[in-house]
Every structure is written in structure tokens, then in C-alpha cells.
């Protein structure tokens, strides 16, 4: 079963300088356990594709979105914003390339992790803290696969 299905996706921006087709007919699918990497030159539409897939770009007077995106069987663009947000984190996430727009340098890294765990997994403060410590330990441990 596919956990992600994108069919003939288009994201078009109307600007004062004309129409810009940022995503033009993308189709792809991803099964559980598979990894998908999207590569391309700067400005080729990778981030817009990711944002459109997640439902982070609104279909409005200056932006047109066509095609379909299904995550875990849910039509992302048919969901209300609240239902879409409930999929973020546990079902789908995106790592943005510019950490300065994703991380607040004033906050400790543990705060960033616990906020995400509390918001997306519904953990309490203490459980989120314990889980964050465990995750940080796992990330700093040497690999056990070296034999």
C-alpha cells in the first residue's frame, strides 16, 4: 500500500511579471519503508513541491493548485487545516533547507524537540523530556553496526 500518492500535481503562481509554473505535472508514489530523495538545482521547485504535498500552500487568487495528493489515504487538499495539521509530524514532515527559518537560536535544542513531541504525539511535559533525552542519546551514540 502506498503511504504517499501524488498524481499530476501542479502549483502555479500568478505574479505581476506573469505566470510561474513551480510544479508542473508531478506524479509519484511512496510505499511504507521506502525513502524518496528529491534533487534539483536551486529554484527548480523542490521546496514548493514539498510544501504543496503537505498542504502548506493555499489555493487562492494568486496561487493555483491542481492534481491530487493522498497521504495515508487522506486527500490532503480536501482536509480542513486542523485535520491537515494532525498529519504533520506523525505521518509526514519536511526538513527545510534553511535551519535559520526552522530553528529559533534563542531556544535550546531540547525545547525544540519537546515542543514537537508534545504537539504531534500528545506527550506530557515529563514524557516529552524523557523521550527527547533518549532521542539525543541515540543520535550521539556510536553506530553498533561496525561489528
What is shown here, in short?
This protein has five helices and four strands, in the order ββαββαααα.
Total DSSP helices = 5
Kindly report the oligomeric state of this protein.
Answer: single chain
Question: How would you state the average pLDDT, rounded?
Answer: 85
Low-confidence stretches: none
CATH class of the largest domain: Alpha Beta
User: Share of helix among residues?
Assistant: 25-40%
β content, as a range? Answer: 25-35%
For the sheet with most strands, the description reads: 4 strands, antiparallel
Name of the CATH architecture of the largest domain = 3-Layer(aba) Sandwich
Summarize the helices and strands and which ones pair or pack:
Blueprint: E1 2-15, E2 18-31, H1 46-54, E3 63-71, E4 74-75, H2 81-87, H3 99-102, H4 109-121, H5 125-140
Antiparallel strand pairs: 1-2, 1-3, 3-4
Question: What are the salient characteristics of this protein?
Answer:
four-stranded antiparallel β-sheet; alpha+beta; 4 strands; Rossmann fold; globular; 2 domains; 27% strand; 147 residues
Q: What this model shows, in words?
A:
With 147 residues, the protein is of the alpha+beta class. The protein folds into two domains: 2-92, P-loop containing nucleotide triphosphate hydrolases (Rossmann fold, 3-Layer(aba) Sandwich); 109-141, no CATH class. The chain is built from five helices and four strands, in the order E-E-H-E-E-H-H-H-H. The protein has a four-stranded antiparallel beta sheet, with helices on one face. Strand 1 (2-15) and strand 2 (18-31) form a beta hairpin. The longest helix has 16 residues, at 125-140. It starts with a strand and ends in a 7-residue tail after the last helix.
Amino acid at each position: 500500500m502506498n503511504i504517499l500518492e501524488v498524481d499530476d500535481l501542479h502549483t502555479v503562481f500568478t505574479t505581476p511579471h506573469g505566470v510561474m509554473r513551480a510544479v508542473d505535472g508531478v506524479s509519484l508514489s511512496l510505499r511504507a519503508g521506502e525513502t524518496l530523495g528529491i534533487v534539483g538545482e536551486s529554484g527548480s521547485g523542490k521546496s514548493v513541491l514539498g510544501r504543496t504535498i503537505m498542504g502548506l500552500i493555499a489555493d487562492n487568487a494568486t496561487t493555483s493548485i491542481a492534481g491530487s495528493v493522498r497521504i495515508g489515504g487522506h486527500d490532503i487538499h480536501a482536509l480542513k487545516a486542523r485535520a491537515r495539521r494532525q498529519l504533520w509530524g506523525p505521518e509526514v514532515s519536511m526538513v527545510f533547507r534553511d535551519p535559520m527559518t526552522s530553528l529559533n537560536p534563542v531556544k535550546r535544542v531540547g525545547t525544540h524537540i519537546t515542543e514537537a513531541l508534545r504537539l504531534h504525539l500528545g506527550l506530557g511535559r515529563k514524557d516529552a523530556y524523557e523521550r527527547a533525552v533518549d532521542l539525543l542519546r541515540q543520535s550521539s551514540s556510536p553506530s553498533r553496526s561496525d561489528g
